[in-house]
Specification:
This protein has about 60 residues and is α+β, with helices and mostly antiparallel strands. The chain has one helix and four strands, in the order ββββα. Strands 1-2-3-4 form a four-stranded antiparallel β-sheet, with helices on one face. The longest helix is centred in the C-terminal third of the chain and has 14 residues. It is globular and about 30 Å long. The relative contact order is 0.23.
């Protein structure tokens, strides 16, 4: 699995198995939160993940 850490390791960006789109996850209040970026390009997925983490939803 290909993965990256963003926001000083607070957000994980990854692709599942042979998936085409990037997923992102973080831990909030001890609970794991995950969402699909719906992006195939890494740069766009990084932008989505940062917005999702900072604002809640882009």
């Amino acid at each position: 699995m290909t993965s990256y850490e963003l926001m000083d390791g607070k957000v994980q960006l990854y692709r599942r198995g042979d998936g085409r789109v990037w997923q992102c996850s973080t831990s909030v209040g001890g609970k794991q939160r995950r969402v699909s970026t719906k992006e195939e390009q890494l740069a766009e997925a990084k932008h989505f993940a940062a917005d999702w983490y900072l604002v809640g939803s882009p």
